[in-house]
Structures are given as structure tokens and as C-alpha cells.
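User: what does the whole thing look like in 3D?
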Amino acid sequence: MFYHDGKLQYSVRVDTPNPVFARMLQQAIGGQEGEIRVAMQYLFQAWNARGPKKYRDMLLETGTEELAHIEMLATAVALNLEGAPPALQEQAAKENPLVAAVLGGMDPRHYLSGGLGALPADANGVPFTGAWVVSSGNLAADMYANVMAEATGRALATRLYEFTDDPGMKDMLAFLIARDTMHQQQWLAVLEELGGHTGALPIPNSFPQAQENGEVNYAFLSTHIDGPQTEGRWTQGASLDGKGQFSQRRAEPQGGEPQLAPPVPQVHAQLE
Amino acid sequence: MFYHDGKLQYSVRVDTPNPVFARMLQQAIGGQEGEIRVAMQYLFQAWNARGPKKYRDMLLETGTEELAHIEMLATAVALNLEGAPPALQEQAAKENPLVAAVLGGMDPRHYLSGGLGALPADANGVPFTGAWVVSSGNLAADMYANVMAEATGRALATRLYEFTDDPGMKDMLAFLIARDTMHQQQWLAVLEELGGHTGALPIPNSFPQAQENGEVNYAFLSTHIDGPQTEGRWTQGASLDGKGQFSQRRAEPQGGEPQLAPPVPQVHAQLE
Amino acid sequence: MFYHDGKLQYSVRVDTPNPVFARMLQQAIGGQEGEIRVAMQYLFQAWNARGPKKYRDMLLETGTEELAHIEMLATAVALNLEGAPPALQEQAAKENPLVAAVLGGMDPRHYLSGGLGALPADANGVPFTGAWVVSSGNLAADMYANVMAEATGRALATRLYEFTDDPGMKDMLAFLIARDTMHQQQWLAVLEELGGHTGALPIPNSFPQAQENGEVNYAFLSTHIDGPQTEGRWTQGASLDGKGQFSQRRAEPQGGEPQLAPPVPQVHAQLE
Amino acid sequence: MFYHDGKLQYSVRVDTPNPVFARMLQQAIGGQEGEIRVAMQYLFQAWNARGPKKYRDMLLETGTEELAHIEMLATAVALNLEGAPPALQEQAAKENPLVAAVLGGMDPRHYLSGGLGALPADANGVPFTGAWVVSSGNLAADMYANVMAEATGRALATRLYEFTDDPGMKDMLAFLIARDTMHQQQWLAVLEELGGHTGALPIPNSFPQAQENGEVNYAFLSTHIDGPQTEGRWTQGASLDGKGQFSQRRAEPQGGEPQLAPPVPQVHAQLE
Amino acid sequence: MFYHDGKLQYSVRVDTPNPVFARMLQQAIGGQEGEIRVAMQYLFQAWNARGPKKYRDMLLETGTEELAHIEMLATAVALNLEGAPPALQEQAAKENPLVAAVLGGMDPRHYLSGGLGALPADANGVPFTGAWVVSSGNLAADMYANVMAEATGRALATRLYEFTDDPGMKDMLAFLIARDTMHQQQWLAVLEELGGHTGALPIPNSFPQAQENGEVNYAFLSTHIDGPQTEGRWTQGASLDGKGQFSQRRAEPQGGEPQLAPPVPQVHAQLE
Amino acid sequence: MFYHDGKLQYSVRVDTPNPVFARMLQQAIGGQEGEIRVAMQYLFQAWNARGPKKYRDMLLETGTEELAHIEMLATAVALNLEGAPPALQEQAAKENPLVAAVLGGMDPRHYLSGGLGALPADANGVPFTGAWVVSSGNLAADMYANVMAEATGRALATRLYEFTDDPGMKDMLAFLIARDTMHQQQWLAVLEELGGHTGALPIPNSFPQAQENGEVNYAFLSTHIDGPQTEGRWTQGASLDGKGQFSQRRAEPQGGEPQLAPPVPQVHAQLE
Ligand SMILES: [Ca+2]
Ligand SMILES: [Ca+2]
Ligand SMILES: [Ca+2]
Ligand SMILES: [Ca+2]
Ligand SMILES: [Ca+2]
Ligand SMILES: [Ca+2]
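Assistant: Here's the predicted 3D structure for the full assembly of 1632 residues, as C-alpha cells:
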């Protein structure tokens, strides 16, 4: 169950409202790298957790924190929209290119649909989709999904930080960037507890490797028409899980050409 | 540029066609954990690569291999559909519960839209979406996205393996599961080359940590109304990147209640 | 069955074509608050109507009228696009900020996909989705869905009205705004016929209230960590349906912590 | 900011796990009528609120409560999935039609993607979309959107109640149905505070009605080829807002046939 | 402007209601091959028409007819749902496999969301999307889009015809199939009027072919690693438009390896 | 199985990077008319092919070529983004309208999500969707779908050609436009091999026309309230397939008003 206090986790201050930046911030709310995604992802992982209680608990903690991040960013969007042009100010645009830029660069739905408020959508107005949420029933897979979310999320936040020169916004983003740093650590710390590379890999580690194809499970297969050409940690030496030796070779077709049966009459293929 | 030979990377054999399993296999084609996603993801990462050529090359190799996996699975779907009931066989269903199960459990669009062929959609017929593809412009973030894709992908493949008792399908899945093992290794090997935890974290490692909020970048913040209650690797000791010390404390609001300006007349808020 | 005459329900005149306003108008065609949504919603409600014929008839009337509104707006989009820059006029943009604004602010798909014609999409180019359509099989629920559609639709239309200073467009919008006024009335009039608050609530009124939980059906539950803090019509006095007394109290967990069974082997959870 | 305690708002008990019912429950989680939608809708309305603080506060309260409803339903899904067949049990299906029904009727992604856990999707596996969320910047429009959400939500919950005969599930649904009753009341109580029909209509009430087309703002227009044929509260008498008189008449085209300019060369229309 | 009469274009009779067939019929309403798609497509093409009035008129005619087809199919869905099991009839399912099949095979949202009514969605419950609609501003391209819609639409209708043995449904489908026959003819007749292959190709025919790359505009390029292997009408002889000669050859890279600039600091690529 | 060589099919040169044109090019990558769509469409048609091997082979050839087109366009996007403003350069925008235009007109996700790289999305940032892909199991229907894709695709490419004055981009587009010319030819050549109009129509030609409604399969039905008013090749003379005579007449309702049963109690319709 959840509670609230109506206050912000960290102060949200906009010194110079900027509707274009409001649009940019939407990516951090409803985009692939955004806070709705991580909030839902951690909460669903918690609710579906069937393993040790400590991981369910931790997921619930951080999922709840992410709700406060959506709140901060929605507030930041609303504050940045307070300078939005409420009409097609042709004269103003003619005289001031910045007005033109704002007209072109803001999300029209911020005005039309939201009445100058935030939306659960990304920087292009594409609605948030639950399709991004990963809750796989495998803790290690989930942890990597979470690291990825915080890595792309922190990259996004640093780009927003570079994009603005508003001191209030920079201060808010410095807070969110720091939280992403910690959240990357958290999920990787779980992976360490799960045994690190040698213990956790391959994911899922509960499937007997004897049942996978032993010819190709540690081989880099090259599809280059001139055969293997790259080299790296992944082409030689012991595998990271300590369970095999890396090799590389040319990928070759082991199956012939597929043969499908002719169509049954009921599908009404074309008589050819 | 790309080439083909019309042969399958590995043999695809269906001993007993099963339209319900055809539907299941769609998840591995067009689902969040599926092969279209990884093919596109690795190829876009390659095409957008602005760093060392070796990583672009490797991404192109494996992206191209994934195209062959889509091909294998599409073939497997078509073969499994060869036993699909081409009509609402009420009499048959009355006499044989398995026919009833197939009628209920198959994807109707396999018959209606595909004429007993595969679709770029998931096991519920939800179309593949490019929204899943991650190509962030940050190599480490991309690598974690790739590990996640192969971890959830391998989990999916092992579940499909358990679901069927068709020897041909099990053999094909054993191949794909092995490739997922290797692909998990590959992306983690890149992360090792990038410096491992101490070199690569926090991602992006090019943002000066002095600019992030130093109060909360290694602190686990508890939103539990009774304060911190969990303990783990992430609540004490040195951080995984060696750049901080973990701590934990109660999350507290550092910002007050947000104050938005009243609505401008042009948005036509309600007179209250 | 449907008929047409090729004429517009109301005149559509654009005095000064404006491709940015064309984009704005798309919200009223294919957006959440748009005319495709209401057309489909009223028609599906009519086609699915299982109650008194008069409501089916009325829904069919107004659903058909909404088709004419899509037609008017699509025409308005096409007319506004007649001034669109058919090329990336760098020189013109350098000399005239308004050209720059238009380049930035118009929907590129109006030119690229539509050849300067309207699209079934919103102001951000997000396609219309049938997911918005409500046809619930419960007349009162449908009527509230319709009121909501006309309330947000009228808000959108008034914002478009404020945004433009084109006399032709203002005249067209004044017509559409008036129709939204009437349509709000219509659906609320049905609710009055259904008995108003005391007759229609709670929706569905056919579910015996004795079967709902009698402890919490008229209680405002506060999740604020400092307990109930708001007061309003909904915290005291008789309920609007006349079937209970409002109260308020602190929300408290009546269920304990959830306990899920451990994962079954076949899902291949991680060995932890 | 948000807090949690890890407990359920109301007890969730499943006496007889049923994977088909798990799928049904998904509609109440991630569907159009579901709890993610209302949670997001009330929270965004709160965060965007620019009017009296009491409404922001109330929206925050109930938005937070809805998070606990998602939690309850996700738990219910996970518990119902504990009886899911982890494999394509052909023999079992042959012998027991119910197994066949379950195989056909469950969501394959519950097993394949979720490892027997809940998803942020509807009963057909279609992901939750932020496109449903209404936060219009107009309090009255938002309130009608909320009434609609609770009306369709309660209809859904009563249908789920009828569908199951599991006592635990019926008890949980009786709680959720009761909360929907109260929530319908809440939003309607706000509308009463806003002045009821005469004060709040037409929405937005801040747009001067003198500017809308006075010919058609209280007229029912009939598109029936044989002219007006329906009668109801909406065709005669004073309008509900007390600002007009209802009338009805045949809808007639007031605009002629639209005339678009010929295509500009750059769009490359077909030479005809 | 549009009118209606409340009657069906052709009679819709369901002799034996079948909820599984109701789900199948949804594909013809809201699917890629469905009637909402063609209705919208023809109407938007009409509204955007900038060429000879006769084509606008014809598109408006047939777009309006398609609205009546949606109406027929929605009615058919509602009638087929009249036999839907309104509860999880475990006992019935145990005794009758057909009940099990229906439980598994029907769309749960027909009951849960629609109250046994039709939805603007496909056979998997995936909502209709405006993304399918083609209105390109090029009449010949639009005509081919329309032929494709009627070709896949007729294929779908014949498959539905095969799937059912309900005489009423077969009669209705025989009508719709016949209309698809005519509609294929219509759009191809326009292409004939536009000049047939020699006059209309390549589409758009208004782009000077001197500006396209003359080396590859009539050459079949083979990506097979063993070079050209197929032969057909498209590898030799005069081209269909009479403007070139077909040839075939091996596809070869004419561009080298792409070289992108290193990342700018502000995107925060990973330090590698 | 697929191979690559890391080189571009044709050279991609950008003389003057332009982030607005980068956004435009996205339509050709991930839009309805784009290369991902045709690549997937031809490959799925190949993999699902159940007829003569020559068509499977040809589809595989051209599907593989389209992968190289995605690669070219993704490279073109990345190169055009090299001049993107990495920050909200207010001062620059104030001084130079073109900077303002770029700020407004570029896709913010190119910077925020892609780090100045291409995305699998359209010019509005709407993600690619598998819902566009047509693989119908009927070769003639598929061929028309392919002609349509290449016709709208070539229209798009010519519009991009007109939009830019960058010589490198024009050269690349001249190549892609030429390939679209050839691809239109290819699919039409297959239709000629399938018998042309008289052999292939109506599609599917395997459904016995005796079973379709013979009253309306060659009749143009007019829904105009004043009856038939258009004339064309489709209203008189022999039909294109040589199997009927065109006629035209007024569309009239052959079915009465639909009659649905009253709602069953379990759906909880409103008591009215
Ligand atoms: Ca966060
Ligand atoms: Ca793979
Ligand atoms: Ca309207
Ligand atoms: Ca609720
Ligand atoms: Ca039709
Ligand atoms: Ca191409």
C-alpha cells in the first residue's frame, strides 16, 4: 500500500520558463528511458517476486522512489510551460526568432490537450507504453533490465543537463543523475550477490547447459562474407562464466532450404 | 550491405505440427524478447556507432546473425501451422478436447491474416514495435541493453523448450538457447574491455561526477513508512565502481509543495 | 446504412493558410479529444445498443453528424496546408523567422506522407487508435464517456479558437464549439432520463449494493502520511445517490504482506 | 513524494487458482478501465492542478490509493497463475476439457514473458498506453473523465465478480467495487461544488457563449434521411444549464462542396 | 455531409450464435484488412483530393458504403455474442469440450469491456490504428493501396466464409465478398483511366526519370551470395512501362564503409 | 541465412549536415512508406511462401536488398545530425532564424535518445510498427501490397528529393528512387505472370464466384442522397476481369433495422 505527503523529493525550480525544454523533459517522464517506465518496472518486479523477500522489498522501495521522480519532472514541465505562447503570435514570431523557435519546438499538445500541463508521453508526444516494462520472473534478467534502464536514463538526464542553462533545472537534474548513479549500483550489487558472472551466467542459470547446443554456445559466428575479421575479448580465452572457451568461426548454414507444404484450399491462396 | 543464401542457419524440423505452439513461437519473433528486436537493435547500434570500429563490426556481425534467427522461427511457425484447423470444426471439437484447445489457443490471425504463415507480432498478436529498440549513443548503455535482451530472450527460449515435447522443436531451441548464451557473453566481454565496473560506471562515465548531487549518489533511500528495513550489498561497504561508500537512510522530502501559477485565460480552465 | 451529399455541414474558409495551424487542427481530427473518436464511439454504442430504441437512434444521429465534423476539419487542414513550404527554404528561413517557425512547427508528414493533405492522426502525428473508443454495454457509463469526450473536445476547440486569428477558422470553430455545447447537453439529458444521481448511481445500478463492501463504499480514504487533511462535499453529509453518508478516515492496510509460492521449475527463475 | 509499507490495502485470497481468470483480471490492471489508468490520471491531474489546492490534494489522495489497487490485482494475477499448466500437456488436455480450456484461454505471455507474473497489459495482452490518460487543464472536464473511468471500471469489476465463483476473489472484488462507488461520488461531488449543471456547463464555462454559433448550440440536428424522428429530454424544454431552449431540426449542409487548390509540383501528384 | 436511415445494407442473420466467430469477425471490423480501414482510407483520400472531381466523388461514394459494412459486421458480432458464456462455467466446460473451446477462444473483452458488443479492434483485441490509412496525395499510389486493401479484405472474407457453417453468416459474407470484387475493379479501372502501366508508371509519373539513377532503374539486383539465380518476366525483355529493358546482375556495394564523426561531448558517449 | 560486408550499397554523402532533414529521412526508415516496412514485408512473404519457389527466391532477394537501404538511410541520418545543436542555444537562435528553425524542426529524440543517431521511427518519432506488414498467404494480394509500398515509397523519396538541395543527398535519393521504379515493375511483372487482370481477378481467384452474391459483384452502388452522379470506366462496359458487366445504381438497404436481444444480467447493463 502507498502513502504520500504532497511534497517534492527535491526542490524543482525554474528560473526561466522554456516550453521547448518542457517538451524535452517529457522524454524523462514518459519515454523509453523515463521515470514511468522504471516506476512500473520495479513495482511489477516486486509484486511478481517469488524469491527471497529482501529483493521484493528493495524493488518496492526504489519503485516507490521513482513515483516521486515522475512528480518532480511533471512539476518541472508545468513550470517550464508558464512561458508558453498561448496563441500563434505571428507578429511576435516575425520580430523575434526565439518566439519562432518556441512555436516550432514546443509540443502542441502541452497547450491543446494539457492546458499547459505534463502528459504521460515522450518528447514527441508518443504515449507511454506498458510494452517497455520488463518483469521476467528471472531475477538476474530483471536486474540487467534495470541496469539498462538506469544507464540509458542517466545518459538522457546528462543530455538534458547539457541542453539547459537554467540553474534551477540543472540543480534538479544533478539530483536525478545522482540517483541514477546509485540505482545502477543497486541492481549490479544484486547481481554480485547472485554470484557475479560465474554464478549468474548464463541467464537463466537454472536451465541445464547440457541441453543447449554445445557446438555454438561459446563461439563467435561471423556472417561477414569474407569470414571472421574482428577480434576481442569474446573471440578467445576463457568465457566470462568460466564454463567454456571462446572461439570464432564463419557462420554456415546447417539447415537446408525450408520446404513448406502447399496451401490448404480454405486459405484461398491464389491459383498460380 | 547484405547477402543471403536461402538456407537456414540450423535445421528446423517439426515432427508434430501444433498451431498452439506456433502462437507461442511468435513471442520469440515479434515480442519484446524476440529476434526482430535484437536484429534491429544490434544493426541500429552498428549503423550509429561513432567509436572504435571493432564494436561497429561486431554489432553488424551479430545483428546479421539475428536475421537468420527470425528466418528459422518464421519457418517453425509455418510448419507448426500445417495442422491448423481450417474451419470451426464444431463436431470435431465436441468429440476431441484437443481440437477445442487448439481452436481456443491458436492465433486467429495466423489463419485469417497470414493464410497459415508467421507474422511480425508477439504471442498475443500485438505487432512488433520499434519502441523497444535501444541505440543510445553510449556503448556501455547499449551493451547492458543487449545483455538484458539476451537474458530475457534466453529465459523465453528455455520456457518454449519446456513447453513443447516435439523433438525437432527442442533441437532448434537448443541451438537458439546456445546462441543466447554466447551473445550474453559477447556484450559482457565488451563491458569488460570498457573497464568493468570500476572503469565503466557510472554510465555515462563521461559526465563529471562532481556535477551530480554528492549527497545521494551512493545512498539507498528508503520510502518505507517505518524507515530503512532492508540490508544488502548495496547498503554498506565500498560502491562497486570504487568511487563511493554505500549508505542507507530514510527518504525525506527536500522540496516543499509545488506552486504552479494560475491558468492563463487562453487555456479555458473552468471558472471555479 | 449511410448516405452523403458531398457538401460541408458548415462553411470552411481559410483566409490565410497556415501549416502550423494545420498541425494543430489534427488534434481535433485524430486526437484523444477528436472527431474520429466521437464518431466511432457514438456509432459503436448505437450498433451495440440492447436497450430502448430511442437511445440507439439518437446515438446514430449524432455519430453520423460527427462524420461531417471530421470532413470539415480535414478540409480545413488541406486548406491551411496550401501555404506550406514545399522545400527546405534555407535562404527564406534566414531572412524571415516566420518561415523558420513554419518549418519547425508543421507536421513533416503533412508534406511527406499526405502530399499536403490531412491524416487520421493527432497534432504530433500519433495515429488515431481505437483504444479510446468506449462502448461499455452500460448506457449510463457510455453517457459519461460521451460527456467527457465533448467536454475535453470543447476545451480543445476553444484553445484552437484562441490560437488562430484567421476569421474563417474562427467562424468554423464557433460552429463546432456550439455543437459541443449541445452534445454535452444531450448525453446529460439521457442521464437525467435515467434517473439522475439518485436513479443512475452507482453505475452499474443493476449490481446489488448489498454485495459490495459496505465499510468503504461512501468513505473517503486518506493516504496522506499525516492522515485526512482535505474537506469537501465528499467527506460529510448524505451521498449524492441518497444511499449512504459520506465519511473520511485514514487508509490502512487490511491485508498483510502478499505471499507467493516459489517459482515452478519450468519458468527457469534464477537459482539464487 | 510517496511512501509504502509492503502490505495490501485489502486481503487478496485465491481459493482455487485459475489462469483464465488471471487473464481476465489483467483488464482491471492495464486495460482502458483499469487501475493503472486511473492512478496515472488522478496523479497527473494533481501534478498539473493550477486551481484551488483542495482539489489537487484530493486527486493526490485518490491517485495514491489507486496504486494500492494495482498492487492488489497484480497479486491476484500471480496467485491465480500458480495453477497454470507449465507445458503443453496434450495428454492432460485430451482427457480433461478444462485443461484444454485453460490452455486456450490463458495469456501465453503470463508464462512466456512473465514467468507466471502480472503484466502492465489488458486481457488480450495489449500493453497499457498513456494515451488513455486525461489531464485537460479544465477541472470539470477532468471530473467527467474520472466519473467515466470509475463507471466503466465498476462495470468491469462487477463482470469479473460474476465471472468467478472463487470466494476469495469475490471478496476482493466486493472491496474494489465499493471503492468505485465512492470514487464516482467524489468526482460528482466536485462537479456539484463547481456549480452543478447550471454553473459548470457548458464546459469550459470560461469561454464566452456569445462567441459560439448561437443557431445550433441547443439544437438537436437529425441526420436521418427522413428527418427528425426521435424525441427526448434533449429535443424540447429548457436546456440543462438554463441557458437555452432545446429544439430539433433536420441537419442541412450550410457549406458547399469544398474546393482545394491543385497540387503543387513538389508533392509529385500523379499526372492525370 | 452524411446521413443515415438506421437500416442495414444487407440482412445480417445469425442462426447459431458463436462467440468464437464473433472474435473472428472483429478482424473484418478493426483489423488491417477491415472495414474501418477502408472507410477511413477512401474518405480521407476524397477529402484530400486535389485532382479531377470525379475521383473525389467516387471515393466519397465508396467510403460511405464502407461505413455500412462496419455496421453490418458490428451487428453480426453482437448477434454472435448472444450465446457467450457469461461466467467461467467450469462444470459446463468439464462436460462439454465445446464450451471449453468457446471459453478459450472468445475475446474476453467482448464480455468485460463491451458487455457483449463489438469493438473497434482486430481478432486479437489489438485496437484499430489510423497508421494503416493511406492517403498519399498521389492518385495512382492511392489506387494501388485501395486494390491491396480490397484484395486482402476479400481474402479475409473468404476465409471467414470457410470458417463458419452458419447459413446466415455465409449469406452476409457472400454479399461482402461480392462488394470486394467490385471494389477491386473500381480502383483498377481508375488506373486504366490514368493510362495503365505505360501511362501511370513509374508512380509518381510526374518525377522526371532523367533525375533518377539510370543504371539501376530496370535492373534486378541479386543479393544471393552465389549471384543471380532466379528468372522471370522481371529479368529480361521490355519493362512494363515501355520505358526500359529489364536486366539482372549481382548487387555490389557502390559505397564504401560509412565513416561517422566521433561523438560530440554533450551526448555523453562512453569514454572507451 | 544472411551475410554482410559492412559496405554501403550506394555512396551516402552529406555536403551540409541538416538536422531537420535528418528528421525527414526518418520517414523513409521507420515510416509507413519506409524501408523497414518493405524489408520485413518481403522477407515474411518469402518465409511464408507455399507456392512456386521462384517467387520465394525473388522475395528473399529484394527483401535482403531493402536491408541495405535501411543501412544507407540510417547512415544519412547520422551524417545529417553531425551539425545538430547540442544545446538550447538561445543566443544563437536570437541571432539566426535558421538556428531557431533547426531547434524547432529537429527530432528531440535524435539528441536525447539516440545521441545523434538514427531511430526505427518515422518523421514524427512514432515507432515502426509490425502492423503495417502484409503477408497474406495470397501471392496476388501480396504483390499489390508490394506495388503500393513501392508507389508510396517512391512518392516519399521524390518529396525528400525536392526538399533538399544537398548534392550528396540528391544523389543518394536518385539511387533509391530508381530502385523503387524497378521494384514497382517487379511486383507488377509477377501479376502479369499470374495472368493479369483476367487471370488474377478477383483476388483470391480460388474462391468460386458462384458463391459470391451475383447481384452486386459488378455494380457501382451510389450512396449519394441524389443517386448515382459519377461516371467512369467502372460504371459501364465489360469488367476488367472479363467476367461481368459494370452497372451502377442507387445503394438501398436490403436489411431492416437490426434487433439485438436484451442484455443478459451478468453484463450489468444499466437499469433504464
Ligand atoms: Ca529515477
Ligand atoms: Ca537470437
Ligand atoms: Ca463534434
Ligand atoms: Ca480503483
Ligand atoms: Ca467493404
Ligand atoms: Ca527500398
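In plain terms: The mean pLDDT of chain F is 94. The pocket of calcium ion (ligand 3) is lined by residues C 35, 38, 66, 69, 176, 179 (CB under 6 Å).
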